[in-house]
Structures are given as C-alpha cells and as structure tokens.
Amino acid sequence: MSLVNKPAPLFTAGAVINGEEIVEDFSLEQYIGKKEVVLFFYPKDFTFVCPTEILAFQELLPEFEKRNVQVIGVSTDTEETHLAWLLTPKAEGGIEGVTYPLVADAAKTIAMNYGVLGGEYTFDEDTAQWSFEGAPIALRGTFLIDKAGNVRHQVINDFPLGRNIEDTLRMVDALQFTEKHGEVCPANWEEGKDSMKPTREGVADYLSNH
C-alpha cells in the first residue's frame, strides 16, 4: 500500500518526549501546517538494529531541526517500555540521550494505517476466531510528510535491513528544494547539485551537460 500523495493517517497516542516524559495524548496533527515530519517505524525496543537507527536519527537531529523538520519514532511497544529503554545507557544496549518523541502503538493501529505491520489479522467464520499471520510488529517504514499533511516519500525495509538516515535527510532537502524553486531533482541529487526544469527542454539541457 502506497501512501504517497495521500493524506498521512493522523493519530493520537501515548509517547515519550524529551527522552524522559510520558504523555498520553501525543498527536501528529499538532505539526500539520507548521513543519514537515519524518515519521519512522521500527520493530521493537531492546533489540539490535533498531538502536543503531534511532541513535543515527538523534545524531542528525540538529540537521533535521535546522530544516524545521520534526522527527518521530514509532513502534508497537508501550510508552513504559520506551521510557525504560530511553533510560538505559548506550553501553548497556539502551538509547539514552534520544530526545525526539517515541510513540507507543500498542494497539498496532498506527502501523496498520501506514501499511507497515509485519503481518495481518484473519477471521475464521467457521470457528469464529481471530488469528494473526506474520510478525505483530512494525517493519522499518519511513514516511516524509509535508506541511500540508500529505505523504511525499515512503520506503519500507524488512526487519534485518537497516535504513540510511542520511538519505532520509537528502529527501527532505529534495522536497524543500522542489517546493521552493519549482524544479525537480534528478537521480542522486544532493543539495548544491544541479536540478532540472520539468520540461523536455529542461531535461535535454541537463542531460547534455552531465
């Protein structure tokens, strides 16, 4: 399921903010009209690949903030588990020092709405029982949401495949560049490189010079 060019599913849920405070009514809607949002899902707290990604987002957080972008992490763990992990030192496998919000999707509805839940519920009418096939945790989904609340970029990785956080920042730069200048970003574009005018002449001119 692709959400690109569609409104981002809104949610209100428990979360840990500032690395230490549990709030019960954290809402995505608070950023609509004000900031772009990088919303990323990860499978589980207290695991192996996940802390490398979460800490990598924290390391680049000043760059996202400089671009007026809000970073938000989500997993299907509870906010209490998030807090316990946030209070655990890095040397002991924790993510102490992370300051952006971590949302608790214990009901799994946020992951389902974003199409990143690692399995699905099925209902057997003969036995009148629900079952779940797959993994009841989130895949590594990353969504770039513009100020209007629309998803402009998404990528979903399987559980063992860690994402590239620097490329997420590159996509933020690309989105902000195209919205400011009205030009498009060719393959492997980075801030400072040539863009293209979205016309046949613009493409021809770019290709002839590269």
Describe the overall structure.
- The structure is a single chain.
- By secondary structure, this protein is α+β, with helices and mostly antiparallel strands.
- The chain has 2 domains: about 10-165, 3-Layer(aba) Sandwich (Glutaredoxin), CATH 3.40.30.10; about 165-210, no CATH class.
- The chain is about 25% helix and about 30% strand.
- It is built from 6 helices and 9 strands, in the order E-E-E-H-H-E-H-E-H-E-E-E-E-H-H.
- It has helices spanning about 50-60, 60-65, 80-85, 110-115, 165-180, 200-210, and strands spanning about 10-15, 20-25, 35-40, 70-75, 100-105, 115-125, 130-140, 140-145, 150-155.
- The strands form 2 sheets. The protein has a 7-stranded mixed sheet. Strands 6-7 form a two-stranded antiparallel ribbon.
- The radius of gyration is 19 Å and the shape is globular.
- About 30% of the residues are buried.
- The model has no long low-confidence stretch (mean pLDDT about 95).
Chain-wise SSE layout:
Elements: E1 12-17, E2 21-27, E3 36-41, H1 49-59, H2 61-66, E4 69-75, H3 79-86, E5 102-104, H4 109-113, E6 117-124, E7 129-138, E8 140-145, E9 151-157, H5 165-181, H6 200-208
Parallel strand pairs: 3-4, 4-5
Antiparallel strand pairs: 1-2, 1-5, 3-8, 6-7, 8-9
